[in-house]
Amino acid sequence: MTNTTDDSDSDFSNLIRHIQESRGIDFRGYKRTSLERRIRRRMEEVGSEDFTAYHAFLEAHPQEFVDLLNTVLINVTSFFRDGDAWSVLKRDVVPRVLERKGPTGQIRIWSVGCASGEEPYSLAMLFAEALGTTDFCRRVKIYATDLDDAALNTARHATYAPREVETVPEALLERYFERTNNHYVFQRDLRKCVIFGRHNVVSDAPISRIDLLVCRNLLIYLEADTQGVVLPRLHYALVNDGFLFLGKAETQLARSRMFEAVDLKSRIFTKVPQEWRRSPGGSLSLATDPANGRATQHARLLESIIDSSSTGYLTVNADGQLVFANSYARRLFDIEEADIGRPFHDLTISYRPTELRSRIEEVRNSGRLVRIEHQPFSRPGAEPVRLTIEVSPLYSRDGKAFATLLSFTDTSRVFLLQQEIEAAQESLETTIEELQSSNEELETTNEELQSTNEELETTNEELQSTNEELETMNEELRSTNEELEVANEEMRRQGEEAGEYRRYSESILRSIDVGIIVLDGSLKVQSWNRWSENIWGLRNEEVAGEAFLELDIGLPVQRLRRPLQDILTTQTPAEPVDMEAMDRRGRRIDCRIRLSPLLYENKHARGAVLIIEDVTERARTDTFTNYLGRIIGESLNEVYFIDPTTFRFHLVNRGAEAKLGYSLDALRQIALHDLMPDIDAGAFGDLVAPLLSGEKAEIVFETTIESASNPPRPVEMCMQHFAREEPPILVAIAHDITERQHLRAEDESVDARPT
User: Fold this and answer.
1) What is the pLDDT of residues 233-263, one digit of tens each?
2) Among residues of the chain, what percentage have pLDDT more than 90?
3) Where is this region: Disordered (predicted)?
């Protein structure tokens, strides 16, 4: 059995090679099953039992090539085929092409697989309507190509039967066709602008600088590998922002990055110039504590978050040195404490898992984030993983970049899921293509049936022969129906797999520790996750399909009516909304709600997504911080915030402003030591040097302070240096010790009295 199959494959390959050598037509990129089925149909008509016999028949009857090519190259076409798609082309594409070309620019159009010419002549009428006949003949060139020489010859004559022009609108038929006896001939002036030629889009060089490329229902007959060759050729042929018009069954571009959909339903795409794609991101900066410094609660919290993160973070400063690595990054890339401070290009991580030095330089020059997807990385004794790397600049408060942040996220699971999804989508596309191929064959059969009916009307003598042909066609239709049943079963299986993936995605949403509520276009609840169930006390099944703004929960949903209506109208995310709410246990909580439009592939909002976060503890922390700030600001004790470089005042509280007698604007022009008559700038710098170097945590000294309108007064000064702040700051607290001196003077006078 195996030998018989191998012999059949060899005979079929020899036949295809003979066709290529004899007629120059290369069928090697066509789908083998479709090609073999059509050749067998022709073999049955001429009575050949196998491929070897048909090979001999072709050699003995060269005219058989014409009938064979008509069978294999299904020339199913018509004027304005799929009228809705042509309406979109006329409404959305033609005006954009004319606008881009201006009033005098030349327009180049390419019709691939033009068959008998109906398609390029439809394009000619479309642009002639927009430009006028004179401008059309002066500015437009339409290149129409096909493999079938007989079809091209028919197209050049541009003569069509009444049945073939039935789909042409009446107005266009009268304007662009001439009636001769029982035929219609396309207008001669427009016909001169259509150039027909034989061309193989798989192997021949593409025509370049094309503004509109029409290739309808050709790709579905090609193998997946051949499609991968043809698509880049079509991309190359188009100018930037040029348009590609495919057939209704062709879905190859749904996941191609070379083209972007203009109208996916009508299969109209635009060329996407090949360039790097980058997305913006946030930044995070961490500094090393001083030797004897004491971290604030906020800094310790940031350190804990970064070190407990499942994302690895590395920071490279402006001098190219590695200055930070969190715990996950140290474990992942074996970074030791000795590596901190070393040049980044000396470390293995600079080139493994991928070369990062040039990416860091690119980020520094452009100021934009660079993302590297799914890089393979393996460590000895560990399973290989896929890492997604983001390289982004870090900015200081003055807006200048001072370091570069590298983040490493394990996306192995996402990478595997994407591969599975792509494989499933490719399988589904193959099934659709095979189904469309069968539909095209059915259309061809219908055309043949119509031709047979016309022959029956003209002669009854061929009735018996026609009946035999119809019986043969019925056998093919039964075979096609069986193939359709197999395809339907495969689509059912694909649907079950898609359902399983949807359930998997829903389980992920229910596990996220924030509230996620999805609304449709009429603001009815589609789903919400487990967090929402726990907080509001209603299950997903109870609220699905209910109007969100009418739900009786502890959240004042009516306040969200206007933001929700705005994002459905503008299709852009709204500003976060903070509000108080009550959970199902009666506990008051503070919520922060982010609202975003629910966008599908066509970029139109189909609903809204609400992300609700409990920020109760965060609000309490902010309130406490503001409370401390008010107490210090209103205190009568003098508190100075000093620049550690110039020693000028940066900020003071009200007590200091009142006792010094200067406004804050005036104090910002004065250095602290300028108000100390007993000490100069050099001595003051020596005094605070141990504090600035980290040798001492604080210094306490007594001095004299001058004010604007009062005499100098003695004070005790306590100073601390906060080097971790950005920028670093000196904080001084001054205590007036005038009363203390009076008491000491009184004590001395008492001691001096005679007993």
Assistant:
1) 899 899 988 999 988 766 655 456 788 889 8
2) 20
3) 438-462
What average pLDDT does the segment 459-473 reach?
A: 73
pTM over 0.85: no
Using an 8 Å Cβ cutoff, are 40 and 15 in contact? no
Contacts of 607 (CB under 8 A, 6+ apart): 518, 519, 520, 521, 523, 526, 568, 597, 598
399 phi-psi bin (left φ>0, alpha ψ -120 to 50, beta other) = left
Secondary-structure breakdown of the chain: helix, strand, coil percentages, each rounded to the nearest 5: 50, 25, 30
Count CA within 13 A, CB hemisphere, residue 244.
34
In this structure, the number of other CB atoms found within 10 A of the CB of residue 703 comes to 19
Alpha-carbon distance of 208 to 226, in angstroms, equals 20
The continuous run of DSSP H or E covering 463 comes out as: helix 463-511
**For range 543-553, the mean pLDDT:** 88
**Treating both helix axes as pointing N-terminal to C-terminal, what angle do 463-511 and 412-458 enclose, rounded to 10 degrees?**
160
Using the predicted structure, report yes or no on whether residue 94 has a pLDDT greater than 90: yes
Residue 450 clears pLDDT 90, i.e. is over it: no
In single-letter form, the type of residue at position 530 comes to R
φ/ψ of residue 567, rounded to 5: -70, -30
Q: Closest Cα partner for 450 from 462, 466, 429, 465?
A: 466
Distance CA 122, CA 127 (A): 9
222 phi and psi angles, rounded to 5 deg: -100, 150
**CA-based nearest residue to 95, from 127, 143, 135:** 127
Strands 210-215 and 107-112: parallel
Are 210 and 110 in contact by the 8 Å Cβ rule? The answer is yes
β-strand partners of 96: none
Nearest-CA neighbor of 155 among 183, 194, 181?
194
Is residue 638 exposed (0-12), middle (13-18) or buried (19+ Cβ within 10 Å)? buried
Give pLDDT, residue 746: 55
Structure confidence at residue 678 (pLDDT): 85
Eight-state DSSP code of residue 648: B
Segment 221-228 mean pLDDT: 71
pLDDT tens-digit series, residues 289-329: 444 444 456 666 777 788 778 888 999 998 889 988 888 88
- Cis check: omega of the bond before 714, within 30 degrees of 0: no
Contact 571, 605 (CB under 8 A): yes
Residues 6+ apart with CB under 8 A from 649: 640, 641, 642, 643, 664, 667, 668, 670, 671, 672
Question: How many whole angstroms separate alpha carbon 157 and alpha carbon 190?
Answer: 13
Specify whether the CB–CB gap between 121 and 79 falls below 8 A.
yes
